[in-house]
Design goal:
It is built from 15 helices and no strands. By secondary structure, the protein is mostly helical. The two termini are about 15 Å apart.
């Protein structure tokens, strides 16, 4: 890797971490603040889901707009919006306003993360597998969440919920300035932009032309975020209700992310000895089992075991799925941003669908019952969709499902 590429890649790791420090703090603060305001559980889920709606609405347009030369400025503006909407949540204690700001926050987060993954792909020479680069990038994301959750908990204890939103916003504004230091290599920049945003007419054909591994990656992303956001939205409320301290909740979420970080850093080595599709199947089942297990765990040690399992399985699937996208970059042409958008849209769909469904279940059968229901139902739904896609696209062997060597 050349020196300029190394600088850009490492700076993108830092930006990914800062983004998720901000987002992790905000995600912990937001549902707790709604509950503190006396909002009913189904409306808590709907408020969190508003972020997912904003994300998925802006994800594909953002990917379609992406061009390497304009990406740093677009990303800077999106990070600024991310920070300002977080701060706005500190000033608006009314549910409908909070939900609206959450939707705008989700839109900004969609643009930020779409641009960052596309910029990472375009920061490297288009030769060989990017498994190691993706491992470090996703590890940076996880490190950010690992720092953001306990930071958010500590700020809430010291400064209240408003303080949590202000700190989260400030971190995003810092990242908005740093991203302007990224300069993608000329050989990846493509033709100079015309100054106009690409039109909608070419979006559908571009989506149809995306390689199959991109869609598989999006399906896996939806699965892991559905389970992650079901737990993330309602576990803090459940834990406080059974006598678990807020500090311990933050620690468990942090250890979850740290586990995902460690497993992501070692993922490149793991996939030298195990097929990615086989690892995915094991992790899909274990992640659902750990979600189910949260409904039975009541002691700190048992909860710790469940969160470590959730972190390890999510971390492995996240690396594999993102590598599927990065390793077909030579087939993508100028659709790198769109492939990043489709992949991240899978994550968005989980954010959008999981909280309201889990909230409805929690209102009807309690939070433990909701964890049992999603832990049992999600693998069945996932494998149904996976089998349907497999049937329509033909046999998908290890060469299709596994990252390229």
């Amino acid at each position: 890797m050349r020196r300029g590429e190394r600088w850009n890649t490492r700076l993108l790791y830092v930006l990914a971490a800062l983004t998720t420090v901000s987002q992790g703090s905000m995600e912990l603060t937001f549902p707790l603040n709604l509950h503190h305001l006396g909002v009913a559980l189904p409306l808590v889920g709907a408020g969190v889901a508003a972020m997912g709606v904003g994300q998925i609405l802006f994800r594909l347009p953002g990917g379609h707009w992406y061009r390497p030369r304009r990406a740093p400025w677009l990303n800077s503006a999106s990070l600024a919006a991310l920070g300002l909407t977080s701060i706005g949540l500190a000033l608006a204690p009314v549910w409908i306003v909070q939900a609206g700001l959450a939707g705008l926050h989700g839109a900004a987060f969609a643009l930020v993360t779409t641009f960052q993954l596309a910029m990472l792909i375009d920061s490297r020479e288009r030769q060989g597998s990017m498994a190691a680069t993706i491992s470090w990038y996703t590890a940076s994301i996880s490190i950010g969440y690992a720092a953001g959750y306990p930071m958010g908990a500590a700020v809430i204890v010291q400064l209240g919920y408003a303080g949590g939103f202000w700190v989260a916003g400030g971190v995003a504004l810092l990242a908005a300035g740093l991203v302007l230091l990224v300069s993608l290599p000329p050989h990846h920049a493509g033709p100079a932009p015309s100054g106009t945003i690409p039109g909608w007419r070419g979006l559908l054909p571009a989506l149809r032309a995306l390689p199959a591994p991109v869609w598989l990656a999006a399906l896996l992303a939806l699965y892991i975020n559905f389970l992650n956001d079901s737990v993330g939205s309602f576990f803090p409320i459940y834990a406080v209700g059974i006598g678990i301290s807020l500090g311990l909740v933050g620690l468990l979420r942090s250890l979850n992310s740290l586990t995902a970080t460690v497993i992501r850093l070692g993922a490149a080595g793991i996939f030298r000895f195990a097929r990615a599709d086989a690892v995915n199947h094991v992790c899909v089942v274990l992640m659902a089992a750990a979600t189910f297990g949260l409904s039975l765990a009541a002691t700190p040690l048992s909860l710790l075991a469940m969160f470590l399992a959730l972190g390890a399985t999510r971390g492995l699937i996240r690396v594999t799925s993102a590598t599927f996208v990065a390793d077909v970059r030579t087939d993508l042409g100028n659709r790198v941003g769109l492939a990043s958008a489709v992949y991240n849209a899978g994550l968005d769909a989980g954010v959008m669908i999981a909280p309201p469904l889990t909230g409805l279940l929690a209102g009807a059968i309690g939070i433990p019952g909701a964890f049992r229901a999603v832990g049992l139902a999600l693998p069945l739904i996932y494998y149904g969709a996976w089998a349907l896609a497999r049937t329509r696209s033909g046999p998908m062997g290890p060469d299709t499902l596994s990252p390229r060597r």
